[in-house]
Design a protein that fits this description.
binds S-adenosylmethionine; Rossmann fold; alpha/beta; CheR_MeTrfase; CheR_N; protein-glutamate O-methyltransferase activity
């Protein structure tokens, strides 16, 4: 249990540190969880609150590990696939399809379900592509790189795709599936902080930034959306989560008619 008493000023600093590092606004409910995590770490490191806060100030990784336990990394294959399906189709019939290697960026890829979802569909269509898949959290990127998932994560994957691009686990991997190398080789996983890192390029054909801005306030989301705009080439696609909206912010994107949460540069 959390037996350490935090002064209001210390909690405010903790909250500010999380906001500054990841752009995440912790509301009251989540604050209790954060307090208990911090208390546990303090007991382990035998630091007092002030020492621990000063350690956190220079240790982004430790802050991110807290965020991991507080935010959700929840994701699954073919989640909100309408926008991905549309992008894949457009790239598949792009006038430069025969000569171009398309570039996709999944900017909060979590455990990899999302970039692999895009990859299997692009591969099935015979499109030449590479995917940059990034996330702030080291632990989700490790899982993503392995590409091994419980069966229940792929429930929405069409059977033909499942048979073609996944290997069934046996023995201790019974109940798991592994993404095949021919898919993995198209994806590079990297740590990237949407708040503080520079865009990794300006010629992406599509950027997916889905179900992460729900944790940001409007001002932070607006800054992220405008930054991601710069990472797209002409006519590049921008997908957000179905529960997210660009409505209350200034941005230059045009929405794609009939496809919720999809925009074009
Ligand atoms: C709910 S998951 C979304 C995964 C996937 N995009 C989807 O829609 O299924 C949110 C992810 O955002 C990541 N995240 C949170 N803050 C971030 C930041 N500032 N920069 C990059 N990623 C961040 C979390 O680590 C988490 O993996």
């Amino acid at each position: 249990m959390n037996s350490i008493l935090f002064k209001p000023s210390e909690l405010t600093e903790l909250k500010a540190l999380v906001y500054k590092t990841c752009g995440i606004n912790l509301h009251e409910g989540k604050l209790e969880l954060l307090k208990s995590k911090v208390a546990k770490r303090m007991r382990l490191t035998q630091m007092n609150v002030q020492e621990y806060l000063s350690y956190l100030r220079s240790n982004e990784r430790e802050v991110i590990e807290f965020i991991d336990t507080i935010t959700t990394n929840h994701s699954f294959f073919y989640r909100e696939n309408k926008s991905i399906e549309y992008i894949v189709k457009q790239l598949g019939c792009h006038p430069k399809r025969e000569v171009k290697r398309f570039k996709v960026w999944c900017a909060a890829c979590s455990t990899g379900d999302e970039p692999y979802t895009a990859a299997v569909q692009l591969k099935a269509l015979g499109v030449t592509f590479s995917i940059l898949a990034t996330d702030i959290s080291h632990s989700v990127l490790e899982i993503a790189q392995k590409g091994i998932y419980k069966n229940d994560k792929v429930k929405q994957v069409p059977l033909s795709i499942l048979h073609r691009y996944f290997q069934k686990g046996t023995g201790k991997y019974k109940g798991y599936l592994k993404i095949k190398k021919e898919i993995q080789q198209h994806i590079t996983f990297k740590k990237y902080n949407l708040i503080s890192d520079r865009i990794p390029g300006s010629d992406f054909d599509a950027v997916l930034c889905r179900n992460v801005m729900i944790y940001f306030n409007n001002q932070t989301s607006e800054a992220v959306v405008n930054k991601l705009y710069q990472s797209l080439g002409t006519d590049g696609f921008f997908a957000i989560g179905n529960a997210e909206s660009l409505m209350n912010m200034k941005h230059p994107f045009k929405s794609v008619a009939g496809i919720p949460s999809l925009y074009i540069k």
